Amino acid sequence: MKNVFGKTRWIGGLLLAGLPLLSHAAPLDEVSLQQQGDVVQATIKMTTPIHFVRYVPGEKSRIVEIYYERIPSSDKNEVWQDKEVRNSPATALTPAFTVTTRDQATQPKLVVEFASEVSFSVNAGSDSRSFVVTIKPEKADAAPLVELPLLPTVLPPVAEKAGTSAVEGAASAAENNQEGYKLMLAGRDALSAKNYSAATEAFNKLLLLPPNQYSQDAQEWVGVSRERGGQTAKAKAEYELYLKLYTSGPGPVRVKQRLAGLVLPVATVKMDAAPKKIEPRSFVQGGISSRYYYGKSDIEATYQFNNVSETTKLSLQDQSSLITNVDASGRYINETYDNRIVVRDVHTKNMLSGQTDRNRLNSAYMEVKNREVDYSLRVGRQTSNGGGVMGRFDGVAAGYGSAQDYRVNGVVGQLVEFTSTTQPTFYGLSVDSGPVSAYVINQTIEGVQDRQAVGAEYRYFEDAKTAYAMIDYDFYFSLLNAAMLTGSYGIESTGTTFNLMADYRKSPAVSTRNALNGAATTLVADLLAAMSDAQLKQLAIDRTGSSTYSQFGVTQKLNATWQAGADIKLTQTSGLPASGTTTLQGVLAATPDTGLEKTVTGQLIASNLYSDADITSIGGSYITSGYVQGAQSMFVYNRTSLDKDLYFDTSWNFYRQSDNYGGSMSRNMPMVRVSYQVQQSLNLDADVGVELTTSAGTYQTTTTQRVFGSVGFRWDF
Fold first, then answer.
1. pLDDT tens digits, residue range 582-628?
2. What's CA 14's distance to the chain center, in Å?
3. Nearest residue to 207 via CA among 221, 195, 194
4. Pick the CATH number of 29-136 from 2.60.120, 3.60.21, 2.60.40, 3.40.50
């Protein structure tokens, strides 16, 4: 029995040590801003299809959490990356903000952190790969609207009163007031003559004097003179300094209104005015992050041997890796072009014995967009935007025309799946017309037909009402490869939001390559040397399963602080028949259907309970399936901001299940994270957690205590 456990220990150690070797996918693609009337829409684009579930808080905060589900994909071994970040610099209408992936393995979400509090709403995007955050810029309502004077009112100096012992000081103050009076008059006259540089000079000279009767007014009007002279950024700095120095009286009311006017000018431009010319500009932005991950497990197994209870203990380090991300993009914009170069790379240095380092170049492309002629061209490593392409690829994607009217797209390339096997090549054509897209695609591997499909997509997007439908049919295999419907519907008057997803797909996606699953070779040519085309196709079909997933959820806003959510999920994966008759093909036994897995989840979420950036979530789930007799889970999560730079995340997850074979398992996992924004561009954070798992069966009980954590930084540029 000890030898058996020794073998089990070796296998368990191998599995645990293999955790860091799973493929880590980067789910975030890009963040873009577009002004729509008096709001700004921030589109957060993902690299793979997702389903929007809900967001918190309801309408105003510095922190937004967007919950979503991952739509079933063909690569089940791909683990979505936590703590991946995209940043958006401040604009005239929006504060700077970051988007971070969190809890991808348990309850996937994006955390959007703004530099200041904003009003917002969140909806699913017009496709199945994005979210739209509608930001409502603050108008000049932080202070009551007052009539702003065009010129300063300059009152004569006030005579200083002083006792006998302070005659000299009073005389000095009177001189300062008199000099300030002259400079205020000079600044006022320069403003009247629209000589803004002279006005700025006069007010600056006044501010260099010792504090006097006119210092406060000069601080306001130096901002006005800079604003009228077109120096918006410097005017903003002057107004902000004023509000730090002076807090009472009518002056701060005016300055707050002037400052708000810099962010969102009052609508004085006519709607039919000629569009403002886009001045050529270029910039580079992105970030570099690096995190060290650590994990150590202590395993204790108790079993019966010859009617005697024996216990064996094992301790091993199962994770030690340094993961570094580089995300950089350069962009050039002018009246005609919007061009960019993007590079995104992830390097994993594994420090455990016997493990190798890995590098994944997720994106490396150049894109040219012409506004006047409506064409685009993207060359390099990129993620697909639909059109039947199954994932990341190296190649060329081009389009011509307006998607709202009629647009033709073409794509050609080779899939990139980060495996040692031969990657298939493909070419495809698609047409967009309003909300509808249709495509045809042909894919080969080693010169052999791999996939040949037609498909269509439908998109609907209107405020809180969204829908996306997709169908993909492979006419080479004569099989429906995928069909999906996802959508959300919000009722603003009641604060209710519904979301729905129904998904059917072959798993993995039907292709000739599936015949290699379980084979003793990685080459299709080797199989074809020993079997006919028809036999190869049938082997691929036999080794292609199917999965169905459906989900319905509702979120109800209870008040400005609380909201409740509930979800029902149904999942089922088909079995596979026995396949293969030779060692080369691989002889695989039949696998049974998983049965219908049912999950019911409830969640209660509070936001801004005691600050302008705290979130608390409490929830639980009940699960049954063909294997699990009954399972329950509970989770508690809190995010607290002590100030705008320091955050604490604490969570606790509990899971318990009993199976149909008399076994049971329970798992507790408390965790804490801390994040500190050292500067606007530098963030430090760390987390630590404990996972306590107990598994009990007829013959053996195993207890595992795992301690894990990570520490890292991110520098944005």
1. 999 999 999 999 889 999 999 999 988 888 778 899 999 999 988 88
2. 32
3. 221
4. 2.60.40
